[in-house]
Amino acid sequence: MKTVVIKRFGGPEGLAVADRPEPVPGPGEISVAVEAIGVGGVDVLIRSGALAAYGFGEGHIPGGEVAGTVTAVGAGVDPVWNGRRVWAFTGTGGGYVEQAAVAVDDAVPLPDGLSAVDAVTLGSAGVVAHFGLAHARFAPGESVLVRGAAGSIGITAVQLAARGGAGAVAVTTSSPARGERLRELGATHVLDRSGTGGEGYDVVFDVVAGADLPAFLGRLNPNGRLVVVGAVGGQPPPDFGTALMTAFRKSLTFATFSADTVPASERRAVRAAQFEAAVRGELVTVVHEVLPLAEAVAAHRMVDAGEVFGRIVLVP
């Protein structure tokens, strides 16, 4: 089968198409004929070599989520899965493929009316947005700032905060045009990437992290909470905790959030509910572009250039 691998760390040109044997599902696994692959920010970080210290080597296949049709089941898996359309989590890699073997516990059946492309646009992002806001203890009436709102996680967080009764939903983004699109999705205030001019917030939902993180701690109201759910901007400065101590009397909270800490059964339940909500039009999926799998280099170039609003999806 055709797949895309990281031939060498660095820029997008380090990705290459390669032939690999089709996987055979093991015990507790299903085999999925892939119809859509989500391109995520973590794929870009792994490709760049930024996460090499975590065990990602050259030859790694990127991609954390796919959608398609089950073609085979492994030992111990109910045959009823055969022929089902599913979304599936491929972990920290293995998704840029034509055929994927995944744990059945990491798969969710797709409802009628939801395309494979929409499934990989919402699948991972929706769960991070849902549980990330819960981790921040977001409550109706509170003000929320979504930092890095133009990606699929941020776009979903904006919608969930608005639907959840936020008193205000501010966003940071790179252009007025993107700001208008985010207003259509529920944002009430649009700020530039620095967040300059915004009022205080009860919750900062941060997809970016990076060097400017301390400034956003400074935009929290008393008892405010900042939760980092991604680090597309890189690591914060080593002394970022100084901002918390300087504002000691405001009782601020800083936290990180990974969906890996949520039980699989809870992730599946929320994901299934969000898929149904998308079919009903209650959650909007935003697809920036759909490209062939062989054009993964072009997809990563767009991500690196900051050109993406929503999600890029690859199709075999």
TrEMBL record:
Transmembrane segments: none annotated. Residues 10-314 form the Enoyl reductase (ER) domain. Keywords: NADP, Oxidoreductase. The keyword NADP applies. Gene3D superfamilies: Medium-chain alcohol dehydrogenases, catalytic domain, NAD(P)-binding Rossmann-like Domain. SUPFAM superfamilies: GroES-like (SSF50129), NAD(P)-binding Rossmann-fold domains (SSF51735). The keyword NADP applies. InterPro entries: ADH-like_C, ADH-like_N, ER, GroES-like_sf, NAD(P)-bd_dom_sf. It comes from the Bacteria. PANTHER family: QUINONE OXIDOREDUCTASE PIG3-RELATED (PTHR48106). This is Zinc-binding dehydrogenase. It comes from Amycolatopsis nalaikhensis.
